[in-house]
Each structure stands twice: as structure tokens, then as C-alpha cells.
Amino acid sequence: MGEVKGTTGSLAQRPDNSAFKQQRLPAWSPMLTASTVLPFFYLMAMICLLLGVWLLLTVQSTQEIKLDYTKAGTCDVCFEKRENVTNADQPCTCTVVFSIKKKFKGDVFFYYGLRNFHQNLRRYMDSRDDGQMVGRKNKLKKPSSYCYPFDKDEKGHPIAPCGAVANSMFNDTFTIKYRGSTGPSVPVPLLRKGITWYTDKNVKYRNPPRAENLTLAQAFEGTVKPPYWKNPVYELDTEDPTNNGFINEDLIVWMREAAFPNFKKLYGVLNRAKEPFTKGLPVGNYSIEISYNFPVQHFRGRKEVVLTTLTWFGGQNHFLPIAYLVTSSLIFLLAIVLTVVWWKFGKDGRNMKE
């Protein structure tokens, strides 16, 4: 009786007699042979080669000029002045001269760049309050503890925007001038708006809500500026009042932290509405007047400006094309080795001897 009960119990626990539960589903097990593997390797090598060449030609069609202005031109005086903390509030302006020998066609983008500035440090990245930056009233005067020690000043007033990221905002300004073969120099117009991501400008960063009769300064009443800033957040842009507060585009660009210590951030785009810049930057001599404010000595950094055109692939970055070409070479080399081994040991159909 015990054996019968055991047999009945085991039958009750047996899975259903279906193809899925009894593992009788049809399957395909490919046979890896030389006639299937070798053509695949050669095909992949060819595809990677074509992609690499195509992307390399695309990247080389862009034009780019990089100018390190840390100590270039007359900026060496400003560099020494910024090294002394007591001179931090004293204005300093310098000029860097360069020339364009081949016309920059189409849209031209102006970037500023920093080297050896680690925006990717965890403590630095956490030193911000996204709730405050989105304009929440309860967070404006009660910033997050993550912002410490840049959450309040010595008198206990809340800082807006708080945190190390906002406090270290890049504050050099640039004015570009063009001088052709004849005539006086003319300023190069730059579009300083529309340089942020749409979601950042319209969703992630918002000014505090205020009544119609209140000014932006009154909306930020009771807060103070970050320690290293010259102007409060509601006066960042003295030329365009609509570009102030947490929706200031330079602030938004800076608050999106870079992943690497050497990076560049968009400063402006060439305004092609006026001559002689309707088709890009013409050949000629240029100068950049720089309001030199951002110190780099403390982290042994460098500063640069970048003028570049873009393609659908982006700027002048050779990493991906070179990666495709290297991958193509390795696959092709492996295919040749496998072809030689097959030709020597497996062509007649016999297995390779151990």
C-alpha cells in the first residue's frame, strides 16, 4: 500500500504532458563550420571598415580651432592677478588674437573649456538642491543639507542657488571681433539664448512663483548670492532681464556636470543674420576680449575657447571612427588566422589532432 501511495503521489506531481513542460519544443542548433564562420568574420570586418571610414570622413569635414588662453596673449597678467585671493574682486581684461585661413561654413559654435576640473566627484555632484532649482517656495529658504557648507552664509541667510556646483560657476565672458583685409574690426554676433536642453530650460529649472506685481528680486527676497558670485541670481544677465534667476542659460549649462575632468561647455552660437557672417565665419583676423574672472591655479587647470562647426555626428571626435577601424583590423586578422588553420588542418574534413 505504501508503494502504491508513493506512486500515486509521484504521478500527481509529474508536470503536464505538454511540449513546453516536457522540453520537446523544436530548437535550432547551428553547426559552426568553416563555411559559415569565416564568411561571417570577413563580412563583419568589411562592415566595421566601411563604418570607420565613413565616420572618419564625416569628422574630418568639421572645422575646429582651440585656443588655450590661460596665459596666452595679454592674459598672463590676469593669470597672476587671479592667483592672489585679495585681487579676486578686481576686474581684469585681456585679449587673444588668432586668424582663420579657411572659411568656417554654416553654423559655428563657441565653447569654453576647462582642463583638470573634476565635476564628476561624488561629493561635488551631490552639493546641490534640485528642489530649490525647480522653484519650490519651501526649498528656496530651506536648502538641502547636501549643499553644506554652501547652504547658508555666516549670518544664517539661505543661499540661492545653494551648493558647490552653483558656487563654482564659470564666469569668464567673451567678446569676439573680426577684422577683414580692409576696414575696421566689427563684433561677431553670438546667440546667447537657446543653448540649453529644452527639458532643462522648461522643466528642470524654474524660478519661484510670484504675483504679477512682484519683481524677480522680490521673489528671491531673504536669500543671498553664493560666496564666489559677484551678482545675485536675479541679476546674472544685466542685458536680458528674462534670462535671470534659475532659468539663466549659462547657469543651466554649468549645472549639467561633465563626466570627465577635461570638458567644454557651450557659450554661444554664431548669429548669421548679418553680413559678413550669413554663411559662417569668413577668412581674416580675429580677436577675443576676455573678462578674466575664473581662477584655475588652485586645481592646476587650464582654460580654452573652442570654435567649431558640427555635423550630424557631432563635433571633431575621432574616438568612434578609430574604434571601428581598430575593430575591423582585429576581426580581419582573426579571420586570416582561422582561414590558415582551416586550410592547414581542416580542409580535407578530418578533425584536428590534439
Description of the structure:
Helix content is 31%, strand content 16%. It has 11 helices and 11 strands. The model has no long low-confidence stretch (mean pLDDT 89). It has 354 residues and is an alpha+beta fold.
The termini sit apart by: 57 Å
Spatial order of strands in the largest sheet: 1-11-4-8-7
Unreliable residue runs: none
Number of helices: 11
Q: What helical percentage do the residues reach?
A: 25-40%
Work out the strand percent.
15-25%
Can you summarize the main beta sheet?
5 strands, antiparallel
Give the CA-based shape: extended
Oligomeric grouping of the chains:
single chain
Order of helices and strands: HHEHEEEHHHHEEEHHHEEEEH
The beta-strand count equals 11
Determine the mean pLDDT. Answer: 89
Q: Structural class of the secondary structure composition?
A: alpha+beta
Can you summarize this structure?
The chain is an alpha+beta fold.
Write the layout of secondary structure elements.
Elements: H1 2-12, H2 34-60, E1 64-68, H3 75-83, E2 93-100, E3 104-105, E4 109-115, H4 122-126, H5 130-133, H6 137-140, H7 164-167, E5 173-179, E6 186-187, E7 190-191, H8 198-204, H9 216-219, H10 249-255, E8 263-270, E9 280-281, E10 284-291, E11 302-308, H11 319-346
Antiparallel strand pairs: 1-11, 2-10, 3-9, 4-8, 4-11, 5-6, 5-10, 7-8
Helix pairs in contact: 2-11
Keyword list:
16% strand; 354 residues; 11 helices; alpha+beta; extended; five-stranded antiparallel sheet
